[in-house]
C-alpha cells in the first residue's frame, strides 16, 4: 500500500557512464529488479524506459539477441496491461538465464543475479524508511533478516570466481560484511531501527560502489 516512487530507482540512463564489464552485469541486475518494481505499479511508460536500457546494456555485454524486435512490439502493444508486461519480462529473464548458462558465462550470470538481489534489498530498505505504520516496518525487517540465506549462497559462488576475477573483491568483501551484520541477529524480532539503519547503510554503500 505504499505509493509509487520512481525517484529511488536507478536512472535508466545511468548505464551509459558504466565502463567496466563486471559492473555492467551488476547494473543489468539492478535494472531487472527496478523494472519489476515499476511493473507492480503498472507504470507502462517507465517499463518501456527500463526495457530500452536493459536492451542497450545487454547489447553491450553481448546478449542482445535475447531481446528482439518482436519482444519490443509485444511491449508496445501491452503497455497498459500489467500481467502481459510481467509475462514478457519474465520471458526475457528466463531466456537470459538459459543463454548465459549454455554459453558458459556463469560469472556474468552470477553478477546479474547479485545486482538484482542487492537492488531488491535496497528497495526494501528505501521503501520502509518512510513507511507510515509498524506493520510495514515489521515485514521489512523480516525480509532483510531472511536474506541472509540467499546472500550466503551468493557469497560462496562469488568466492569461487574471485580468484580469477580480482575486480569483484571490494564488492565481495562488503557483501561479506553485510552478511555478518544480518547473520548476527538471532531473530528478525530482535532487529530495531538502529540495526536496520546500519544494515541499510551497508546496502547503500555497496550499491554506490557498483555505480562509482
Topology:
Blueprint: H1 21-40, H2 44-61, H3 69-77, H4 82-102, H5 106-129, H6 134-162, H7 169-183, H8 193-211
**Major sheet attributes:** none
Which runs of at least 5 residues are low in confidence (pLDDT < 50)? none
- What portion of residues is helical? over 70%
| Content of β-strand | under 5%
- Specify Rg, calculated over alpha carbons: 17 Å
If helices are DSSP runs of H or I spanning 4 or more residues, what is the number of helices?
Answer: 8
Task: Provide the residue-averaged pLDDT.
Answer: 87
SSE string, helices as H and strands as E = HHHHHHHH
Rounded to the nearest angstrom, the distance between the terminal CA atoms is 33 Å
Please state the structural category.
mainly alpha
Shape summary: globular
Number of beta-strand segments: 0
General description of the model:
With 212 residues, the protein is mainly alpha-helical. It has 8 helices and no strands. It has helices at residues 21-40, 44-61, 69-77, 82-102, 106-129, 134-162, 169-183, 193-211. Helix 1 runs antiparallel to helix 2 and helix 1 packs across helix 5. It is globular. It starts with 20 loop residues before the first helix and ends with a helix. The model has no long low-confidence stretch (mean pLDDT 87).
